[in-house]
Specification:
single chain; alpha/beta; 7-stranded mixed β-sheet; 34% helix
Amino acid sequence: MEIEIGQTKSEWLETLSMRGDLAGQIAHVAETPDRPARYGELQSPMHPRLKAKLDALGLQRLYCHQTQAYDYATQGKDVVVVTGTSSGKTLCYNLPTIQACLSEPMARALYLFPTKALAQDQQGKLEALIPGPDIRCGVYDGDTPKSQRSSMRRLSHILLSNPDMLHLGILPQHEQWTSFLKSLRVVVLDEMHVYRGVFGSHVGGVIRRLLRLCEWHRNRPQIIACTATIGSPLELFAKLSDRQAALVDEDGSPRARKTYIFWNPPAISEETRLSANVTTSEVFASLVEAGTRTLTFCRARVTTELILRQTRARLERSGVADPASIESYRAGYTPKERRQIEQALFKGKLLGLAATNAMELGVDVGGLDAVIMNGYPGTVSSFWQQAGRAGRASKPGLAIMVAHDDPLEQFLTREPERIMEGATENVSANPENPQILTQQLKCASYERAIAPSELEAFGPSALELAEQMDRAGELAFKAGRFFYPDHEPPARKVSIRGTGGADIVLRCGESELGTMERWRAIQTAHGGAVYLHRGTSYVVENLDLEKGFADLSQREVDYYTQPMLQSVIELMVEVSTKKFGKRSVALCGIKVTDLVLGYKVKALDGGAILAVHELNLPSETYGTVGVR
């Protein structure tokens, strides 16, 4: 199958009508037309050096959303920018930040990105825009060598980091950051839509802790947030920062034509269809063989590795393209591996990449022609984010969604307008969740004892919760403030991404393959489990949860493993009820116990179950809220 990027919808249908074996798999083809750029004029002054740099880069004209964001920011307003993928949102915060640094040489800025890959990518863009060596920037995250951290803290004007590092490495040691916090003028929240659920709720607490320490130093930094198209972006911003912002949502960037295909794997019986993984690898291999730079999104780490392995096998059999020209990318790799893959992708050395949704974010992967979504991403917003990775402003692109054999995705292939014409969802975060707020208040009180008047920023329930913590001995109220009664920073015990326990190190002999969260290791790194890593298979020989490691041996196998999970929900307390007609709904406190009952051994080439094994592993229990 050779796919020519740039074909129109009618050309696609004509091509497919001559290929009966493919035509039956195409459930729907859609197309979005070209859109011209719309430019704006700056109303606020720009430093001559910055203006000269933009001219040298050929950026004499800015899109209307970029000029509006710059004007709002230079007026001192907090700003939320809501525009599409590849619309140039980076300039919306880089320009006002550099303007602030040029106008005030001691000014500092903190950029927060949800992933390390995004920070690495954005560093290159920022360095290309900075008009001279007097403005320094650097990435400050968990991969930054400790020997470099002190100089970066003292000398860098703009630090690129992530909420995890802010939570663990900056705020608990804020005495070392006094000069930075006093001079902090701009805080950037890029990809704000990622801060949802437990992660977003924790980030809301982390941002409040940062702003609180800045206020202690009589400083009020400005916040600039960028997000994909979501419902209620200002409401999410308020949840994260306890502030109100000016909204920029008029996208002035140009758009080239893009073709969308809803691909349904063929039925192999009356009850089942061909595996979506097999279909995805076939389409992926065909695109790579045609010289089409392709990014394949997968919803799970193991699926990412399966797609890489199956696609490489197909490329080896055909001999048309080099199997080494495709790679995988997901969490759990070592920092060195991540950097190698990122650089190969950014420099165009790879023809294809199978990845989790980490690459859904605004990483500039350069000249991608096509995107394959191995299953519906879960939301309309994520669908457009992933599809937006294909093509650039002036280059047409192709986006393919391969449907899984489940009721929801089969429904969407029959009614694709639910996606193509559907409204983007609201993003929900709740920093006032008692389970989360309790942990954030511990961290905040350790950093600096909290006065009751300061608790208002953490939500109306924060004072009552702090008093409860005082009675329970988790906080101590003395001299009119809440203190943390221990010398060890509580942040080390609080995972803001919603996972508990230290990471498990995966090792093969003397080599470290990567890390995995404890809960994930119980599910997928138990004895007998197959661990796939960049196309190579390993079998877990032993998992030691107490010592924090799993021993693996490299072994080529023609199967993979899948855990069998069970969750037991126990009702603890009924918080509130609400009636809807004759029915009532109750918000309840619940206890959830997750169990790993065993695992299935499944064939690599289609997912057929080869064997089932029982396991006896510790359960994971946590409290949360639910609706009954």
